[in-house]
Amino acid sequence: MLRGLSAFLYGRRGFYLSLLLLPPLLWLGIVYLGSLFALLLQSFYAIDEFTARIVPTFTLATYGQLLSHPANVDIILRTLAMAVAVTLAAAVVAFPIANYMARHAGPRMKAFFYVGVMMPMWTSYLVKVYAWRLVLAKQGVLSWFVDLLGLAPALDHALSTPVIGGPSLASSYLGMFVVFVYMWLPFMILPLAAALERVPESLLQASADLGARPGQTFRQVVLPLALPGLAAGSVFTFSLTLGDYIIPSVVGAPGYFIGMMVYQQQGTAGNLPLAAAFSVVPILLIGIYLTLARRLGAFDAL
Amino acid sequence: MTGVQGMQAGGADTAPPAAAAIELLELSRSFGPVRALDRVSLTIAPGEFFALLGPSGSGKTTCLRLIAGFDRPSDGRILLDGADVTDVPPFERNVNTVFQDYALFPHMTVAENVAYGPKVRGVAAATRHRQALEVLELVRLESLAGRTPAQLSGGQKQRVALARALVNRPKVLLLDEPLGALDLRLREEMQTELKLLQHRLGITFVFVTHDQGEALSMADRVAVFRDGRIEQLDTPRGLYVRPRTAFVARFVGSANVVEAAAAARITGTAQAFAIRPEQIEVLPDDAPLPEGAVGCSGELADIQYHGATSRWHVRLDDGLVLSAVRAEAATPGPTPQAGGRVRLAWSRDSLVPLADG
Is residue A60 situated within a structural domain? Predict the structure, then answer.
């Protein structure tokens, strides 16, 4: 019986494949893309001012509302600036670590690093955010340590900087930035390490052999070939920062971020179309980001 | 290939001139407890085509990497053109390498790959592009300058790697198994081409190979490596005609090696020797031994037919198997069948006494 079935399926590749693919395709199609489409659709509806009901007719009024209020534009720019800063910092911090993991670490050290990078992800996200709030607090362990090193004036100076500063790290954009970088760092390290591992050692030797100093080899060979990994990692750090609403509400200055707006508009404010319009913004920004990355040749080496 | 053989004969046994292109002094490299290279000393003359030959793990590639500067020796010195470069990084050595996997930069075109050397040395864009095209012309690839390495065949990649390594006009070109990844026909073509190129440019070539045929046909001199040491350093003809050890006799000439005990039974003296297959004559079992010849008889185990030649394996009564090569033209009449008895004979002069075994 079973042999008959195997023989039947073996001869019919297409049938067999579609049988395997159907369930995940249904999931992807309906649950994933369907809900995304519903979200997009919602953003083209508007809410009735009096009854607070959604009027299902096509209108750009919600987008008008989104872009006409300076406060909303502020939120978008603030979130974008944070996402860019976090992505750049994550790339700078991740590169040496990923490079060590991919190129220099022995098998044991490599396993240790992979576990070390991924271990924080096994802990609850909320616990980590609240823990950071305590670490960054005015009387927290970080300021104690900075004091111990005699660097308190430097920290005070940083906190007195307008915009990024604040009364303490826990209630400043600087602190929020630190937490964001910490949270998304593994998402940058792992694709970057994978990309660097694919660069054969002989390419670096060839570069040195032809007369390139280590800095030139890095710029001309390593960086261009690591670019796809860097692009993949930055898509994570960029989009995760654009959409997050927990970190900005627990740590940092009181200003709103896109994620918080979405959360608030679909919850307490009950304005589903505006929440949908807000959540379209990160999608658009990431689309623009990917287009730019492609133009700059980030995916050429793929 | 005959012209190449003639050139080798001219260089035979002449000592390299005083100003050596490469000089290795007691060079060693250990990896943990393993001595990959064990006090190797050798001198390579300017313009010489020098081969490092050996099985995998014999230290030949380690030796090349040390000359290129990718690795530092545990002990010993390296001199290039008379100057001590032991502690000089690869980017400051006037030596270029053709890598086994070609190591072409995948994100650059062929022309950009070749122009990379001048580029990192600060040559202006227009000049280095012209230089790249000149060298590409040398390897007959100027028409592919705009392609990327992914669009090239193995043989083309090989030429690009060669062009890229030659564009800096190095004093010494190092080649790490340069023909290993090519098919047989292309390999023979490239052997000739490399030899001609080397002759034309007058650059010292040092190349690593595990293929004794390649080493014999291309090199002026060959260093045979075994277990991190040089087993024998000689001209190709010297290695083939006068192997010093059983290892060299087997590895270079695929010669028959007869160890001391068996030698005593055949020649009457307990001295190990090598005898090359083409010097053994196969006679009918009842034929008389020619004047001044050494002989023995055994059972014809099998015959491998190679076209121009055939290789006969004969099992002697003590179990030793000797092989004899006969040219197709020299085999008149009915051939003996496997399983029949034959007599082997060779002249006393063709025995090569071995230092070991």
Answer: no
Per the structure, the complete domain to which residue A15 belongs is given by 2-34
Residue of A nearest to B102 (CA): A202
User: What's the token pair of residue B271?
Assistant: 């001295």
C-alpha distances out from residue B317 to A198, B56, B286, Å = 57, 34, 16
Answer whether B95 touches A (CB < 8 Å).
yes
Q: Is residue A246 part of a domain?
A: yes
Cβ neighbours of B347 (radius 10 Å): 15
Nearest CA in chain B to A208: B91
Q: Which residue, among A198, A209, A227, would best test binding to B if mutated, counting the most B CBs under 10 Å from its CB? A: A209
Task: ipTM value, please give it.
Answer: 0.82
Same domain, yes or no: A128 and A231: yes
Residue A104 in domain:
yes
* Same structural domain, A77 and A223: yes
Element holding B35 (H helix, E strand) = strand B34-44
- Same-domain check for residues A121 and A231: yes
pLDDT by residue, tens only, chain A of 302 residues:
778 878 777 778 888 888 888 888 888 888 889 988 988 898 998 888 777 788 888 888 889 988 999 999 999 999 999 999 999 999 999 999 999 999 999 999 999 999 999 988 888 989 999 999 999 998 889 989 998 998 888 888 888 888 888 888 888 999 999 999 999 999 999 999 999 999 999 999 999 999 999 999 999 999 999 988 999 999 999 999 998 999 999 998 888 899 998 988 888 778 889 999 999 999 999 999 989 888 877 776 55
* Closest Cβ opposite residue A210 in set B106, B107, B164: B164
Contact B295, B346 (CB under 8 A): yes
Residue of B nearest to A205 (CA): B70
Contact A209 B97 (CB under 8 A): yes
Task: Tell me if A102 is assigned to some domain.
Answer: yes
DSSP state of A195: H
Residues A17 and A154 in one domain: no
Domains contained in chain A, number: 2
On whether both A173 and A120 belong to a single domain, the answer is yes
| Closest of A182, A158, A184 to residue A241, by C-alpha | A184
Q: Are A23 and A82 found together in one domain?
A: no
pTM for this predicted structure: 0.80
Contact state of A206 with B105 under an 8 Å Cβ cutoff: yes
Residue A258 and residue A191 in one domain: yes
> What is residue B242's DSSP assignment?
S
- Residues A10 and A94 placed together within one structural domain of the fold: no
Nearest CB among B70, B105, B120 relative to A205 is that of B70
Helix (H, G, I), strand (E, B) or coil at B195: helix
Chain A contact present for B99, CB below 8 A:
yes
Which of A199, A202, A210, A299 to mutate to probe the B interface, most B CBs <10 Å?
A210
